[in-house]
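Posting for a labmate who doesn't have an account.
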Amino acid sequence: MAVKDKTRASYRARTLAKTMKGFAGSYGGRWSQVPNPPLWYSTSVQACGIYPFVAGSARPTDGAPLGRDMLSGAAVCMDHESLYRASVITSPSMFLYGINGVGKSSTAQTILLGQAARGITPGLFNPIKVNEHTALTEALGGTVARFGPGQPDRFNLLSAGPLGEAARKIGGTVGRELDLLARDKSIQLVQLLTRTSRALPLEDIEDTVLELLVDDARERNRRPHTAHLLQAFQTPTDRTLGKLGLLDVEAFHRRFVRLGETIRSMLSGELGRLLGGEESVEFDVGNPGGFCFDTAGIPESNTRLLSAAMLASWSVGMDIIDAHWELAQHEQRLADEAAHNGDVYEPAVRWRGYSTFMDEFWYPLRACEGIVDRVDRLGRTNRSIGVAEMKATHSPKDQMSLRNPEDREKARGLTERCGLIAMMALTGKDLETLSDIRPMTTEEIELVKGFNAAPSWHKPKIRAQRGGKPTPPPGAGKVLFKVEGRVGIPVQMVQTPVQATLHVTDTRFRKTS
């Protein structure tokens, strides 16, 4: 009997045929349909010891959670700040390019939220769409300042601002140094916005006059504001006349009649209402929720007003960051002194770094010649001031189309020195321009060119979504991240439901769909 069973087993083994779906024949176990095995993503801590088929990912996993690799499906986590800390890039900076409607702002928000989860304070500048970043900033506990016709906030160019506030709280030698820095920053801002108002460069002597006028206005008035600048021009002090080598007020006015016209223009109309505030916009320096300068109330057609708001907000925003650093250092010194004496002091302000985002970057670059210099200086010092910076614009042509050849070269340098370049849907010519700056393979160029390709002429069949959320365009959230000397990583960004409710820029379309 045992021999007979063994014979039958040998017979069955010989008659089974091996196929792609198992062994064919009696008791072979072949499946007519082979299902795909389930697939999960997890951290190495969660997945360690699981058997079988645990595979690691070659994609970066440190930094902001972005989404899935479009080619392999692997999770991708990175941002320009984390790549800089990992010594992958030499500058914590990122340039984001993409045509309208593909999700540049959503991509930037995903990165900022990932950084905020690590304690990095966000600073958002100049959204020009309603509800672009304001709801997100408020949800994080940050401060929002709104500018434009009918909006509540104003800039006071002669205000000591956040640096002055830090100087008062710190006092002593550091406080006096911050007071001098606040004075210098006020002068630079006046000079910058005078250029913007004129839309042409100033003469060197005019820069000197503006410096003297700011000092006169600050000394004459206990609470100086922008309108005092015109009063200082109308009645210059003897010190100002002496430094300029002029005999009297009439000679001063004859020599600088054009500058006087520019100051009057800057303080009149909508521009005057923006810059003429007696009480400048104020922020809670040290707020870990960060800040947002909202310029959505300014019509996009009013380029001069929008550019002025952007430039002023850049200046005040960087003052907030500098003041935060100084206050955090002061608070830490108090904590160290208390610990030395056996006491406990909890610092009221702590420093964890900043990440700034400059949206619609092409607007201020076109304001007037020489503006790119200020941006260039900021990009060169981001490491020293502890700021990771991100800029977004539609196309590299925005930088290459500046009137002044020197400005064009400096604008090109902004991209060349950028640590991380992110490309969403772009034209072939745009990609060729970027490839000259950050070399790309033919496959990478073709991939990005195809981001925005629609699968058909018909509306895709989708499930009804709560809240009436429309179907995203074909290229929405598709980004190629590129660093020097490495193959680019194509990512399909993921937006969480909470983030989606805080970032709605097409309200009218949704209400009529």
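Reply:
Got it, the structure tokens are right above this. The chain has a mean pLDDT of 83.
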